From TrEMBL:
Signal sequence annotation: none
Gene3D superfamilies assigned: 1.20.58.70
Domain Syntaxin N-terminal per the UniProt entry, residue ranges: 7-84
GO BP annotation list: exocytic insertion of neurotransmitter receptor to postsynaptic membrane; intracellular protein transport; vesicle docking; vesicle fusion
The organism's place on the tree of life at top rank: Eukaryota
Xref: InterPro entries: SNARE, Syntaxin, Syntaxin_N
CDD domains listed in its UniProt record: SynN
Single Gene Ontology MF annotation: SNAP receptor activity
Bilayer-spanning residue ranges: none
Gene name, Swiss-Prot/TrEMBL: Stx3
Protein known as: Syntaxin 3
One of the record's GO cellular component terms: plasma membrane
């Protein structure tokens, strides 16, 4: 009788372990899917913000190429955004929006780097 009880206990532990492993695998897969979607959303947001900043720079009279804009974003140098902008109400507002978006992009970039480190 004791052997039967021990055998039943081992089978129950084994079944619990299989269930846990299965649940872990499913949750891990779903986590990776969610993080992939999150990463795609961050990249999309960065690209849209970059386009918005470039348009705002063009409106204020500072036309830039994609390479120059990427260099500005990579260096984190917000002073580049202020070059050539005249002291007027519209220009100040545009500058404020550009700097705000630049900060958002820098934060987004650091989030993407952190996310990348998780999967590497």
């Amino acid at each position: 009788i004791e052997k039967d009880l021990e055998s039943e206990e081992q089978e129950r532990v084994s079944a619990d372990m299989r269930i846990r492993k299965s649940q872990h695998a499913v949750l891990s897969r779903k986590f990776v899917e969610v993080m992939t979607k999150y990463n795609e959303a961050q990249v999309d947001f960065r690209e849209r913000s970059k386009g918005r900043i470039q348009r705002q720079l063009e409106i204020t009279g500072k036309a830039t190429t994609d390479e120059e804009l990427e260099e500005m974003l990579e260096s984190g140098n917000a002073a580049v955004f202020t070059a050539g902008i005249v002291d007027s109400g519209i220009s100040k507002q545009a500058l404020s929006e550009i700097e705000s978006r630049h900060k958002d992009i820098v934060r987004l970039e650091s989030s993407i780097k952190e996310l990348h480190e998780w999967f590497v």
